[in-house]
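Reopening closed ticket. The problem is back. First fold of the pair:
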Amino acid sequence: MTTRKKPPAESSAASESFALGADGTRLYFHRQAGPSPVTALLCDGLACDGFIWKYLWDELGAELSVAHSHYRGHGRSSPPVDPEQIGVKALADDLDAVRYAVGDPPVVLVGHSLGTQVALEAYRRRPEGVAALVLLCGSFGRVTYTFKGSEVLASVLPNLIEFATTHPKVARAIWSSVPPRVAIAVARLTGDIDLGAVRLEDVEPYFQHVSIVDFELFLRMLRAAGEHSAEDILPQVRVPVLVVAGARDSFTPAAVSEAMAEAIPGAELDVIPSGTHLAPLEHHAEIAARISAFLARNAVITPAP
C-alpha cells in the first residue's frame, strides 16, 4: 500500500475541494472545522448527495469537525474513470482519499444506508485513526437480499441492468421523467416516507438528485452493494460502535441492524420505535444527542460543559 504524506491542516473554518480516487476520479468534498479535531466523516446512501445530513451536519458540528463527500458518479463528483470501479471497496478507497485530503485527522465514520457498508469497508482498509463507527439504518451487506424483507430486488436486478444497457435512452427517459413530488407521494403510500415526521422540502432534494444519476450506473452500484458483505470484519472491530435502527425501516429491516450490532464486540444498539429509513431526518435531534452521549462515554470527545 502506498504511503501518503499528511497534508497540512486547512486554516479556514469551512472549505470545499476535490480529492482524487485511485483511478483518477475527481471526488468532491466539503468540510467544516469544529471544536474538536476529531472529524465526523459522513457516508451517504446510494444515489444520495448529502440530503440526509441536513440537520446532523450542524448538530454534530457543535462538538466535532465534520466532512462529507460525494460518491463517484454522484453530485459534484465525476463519473468513475474506470467504469468497473463502482463497488463498495472502490467507495471505501475513495473515502480513504478524502480522509487524506482533509488532513488525515482522527475520524468517526458515520454511515447511513449504503454508507454503513462503506464505513465498515473503510475501517477494514485502514483502521488506524478511526476513533469510532456510527452506523445508521444500514447493514453489513447483501442489501438487495433483505430489501423490504425479501430477495425480490436481487432477483430482478439482472433484468433491469440488461434493459438499461440495451435500451439506454428509453431507460433514461423513464428514470428521469417521474416528477419528484409524484415519487414522494408513492413513497408515502408505501410507508417509506412519513410526512408527519419529516418535511417535504427535506426529502425533495433526494428525488431530484436520483433523477439525474445515471440509471445504469445506479443499478450496477446497487448490484455491487448487494453482492458485497463486511460480515467477516464485524467480530474484528476494535473501536466503539453505535448502531441506530428504525423499527419501521422497510429498506433495511431493524432485525438486520440488530444482528450486525450483536456481531460487533461491545457495540451499542438504539432502535427508534417510529423511525423509518429516514430516521436521521425524522429524529435528528434525538440521534445527535445519542451520538454525542456515545462519543462522550467512550472518550472520543470531551463533552461540552
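Second fold of the pair, where the issue appears:
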Amino acid sequence: MNAETRTLEEVLLAEPRGFCAGVDRAIEIVERALKKFGAPIYVRHEIVHNTYVVNDLKAKGAIFIEDLAEVPPGATLVFSAHGVSQAVRAEAAQRGFSVFDATCPLVTKVHVEVAKLHKEGYDFIMIGHKGHPEVEGTMGQLTEGIYLVEDVSDVEQVQVAQSDRLAVVTQTTLSVDDAAEILKAVKSRFPKVREPKQQDICYATQNRQDAVKFMAPQVDVLIVVGSPTSSNSNRLRELGERLGAQAYMVDQAEDLKAEWFEGKSRVGLTAGASAPEVLVKQVITRLKSLGAVSVRTMPGVEETVHFPLPKGLRVQ
C-alpha cells in the first residue's frame, strides 16, 4: 500500500499526559478560594498556561491580572503556579492582600535552594527561557548574582562576577535533552559549578517527554494538546519533530487540519501538563470524524504525586 492510499486508522495515546500535580493543585486553589470567599478572586498571571483552563476560571469569577495595582485593597490574590519574585511578594504584603500561593512546590524547591545557597555566598547561572514567568520568579529571588542562559552560546558569553562559588538552577519545564547539553557547556566553562542534588526539571516534564520518545517512532503524525504559552507543551512538539514525526500543537480540536493526516495511518496524541483531559477527548472525537477507527493507550509511568493545598483552603 503506497503512502497516497493510506488512511487514518489508529490513535496512540501517550501515558502519562495532561495535568500534573502542580497544575491540579493550582486550579483547585482558585476554585476553592472562589467557593470560600466568593467572586472575584484575583490571580496574578495565568494560573497555568492553558486557554481553556483560564477561560473556565474566568467564567467562575477569577480575574487575571499582571500588575498588582489592578487589585483592589483587601482582595484575595492567588499567585500562579509559575511562582513570583520577592518584589511581587513584598508588594502584595504591603498592599495588604489576602494571599494564597499556588506556586508549584517543585518551583518553590528551586526558590528555597537559591535562597539557601545565596546565604552561603553563591552566585547562580539559571538555564531557562527569557520572559517566562517561572524564570522571572526564580531570578527575582535575588537582586543580583543570578545570570540567565538560554543556550550553549549564552554559556560561552555570560560574564559572572565570580566563579569560585557558582551554582546552576534550571527552569522546571525545559527539554531534558536541551538542558543536559547546556549544563554540559556550563560545567565545561565553570568546572567548579555546583549542580542541584536532584535535577530541577520536574517529574511530569520528564515523564511526558519520555512518553513522546517512546511513541514518536511508532507514529506518522504527533499531536500535542497545549497552548502556545505553555513551555512544556512546546517542548513536547519540538521533541516529536526531532524524533522524525510530523508534530503539531493545538489549543483545541478545531485547530486540527484534515491535510495533516492525508496519507497517514497512525497518529500519536499527547497533552502538556497544563492541558485538561477534556481537550484530549475532543481531539479524539475530531480524529474519529477524520477516519480514525481505534484508540490505544500506550504503556507508561503511573503518576501518584499529590501536593497538599495551602492552609485556609483545606477541607476541614
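Update: turned out to be a display glitch only; the data is intact. The mean pLDDT is 96. The longest helix spans residues 21-37. Please close again.
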